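User: Sequence in, structure out. Go.
Assistant: Echoing your sequence, followed by the structure tokens.
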Amino acid sequence: MAVDATWTALLRSTLDGAHVERFGDAPQMLVERARASALGRRMLARRLQNESPPLFAIESSSECSSWVARHPWALFSGERLRGTALDLGALAFAPALRARVNRNEVLLLRAAIGAARLSFVLSTDPWQGVVPEAVRHCAMTGLARVLDDADALAELVRQRGRIELYAYSALLHPLLGERVKLAFPPLPAGERSDAWLPTTAVAQYLAAADASAAETRQ
């Protein structure tokens, strides 16, 4: 069976971008050193294969080219995927973020997710003015719990973004979901897929992110 070059590129980017905790208890320094050698990469690849057998199965190579070509952000670095999750998480919390006008709360939001990201969220409406009441309630309630802790707020937004990115990617293709999953630390209960954001909003964000990445590569 011929190995698809796109599948090889996908596995390479998966290995390069996998979260360090996907490799067990090895210190980050050792993982990074292993990523820089052929022998180390083979060892790390075996570990990831245990984490995601479907993605690393040779049978997957035959179906890889078409969906990676349609969704080139599948080849984003791990850092870029994790940044994407933070953006999507902030978008998902947009109804609650927009409701905060107290100066101290706004300063906390800026410290937690960054001024540029907050500005982006405040100027973007993923729901086109019609936010589902369940989403609004969950966003307001969740944010209210962490408004005294910038680190906790950032983690709340990051985890929501992880859910949004995984849910959308797995909907497009199961192997794309696997690719995204490995860019984040393992979860004891597995990946959640209770997305808040409309799929169109996530698609638009990722299309813009891919276009930006293409411009950078030129």
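User: And one key feature?
Assistant: The CA atoms of residues 136 and 195 lie 13 Å apart.
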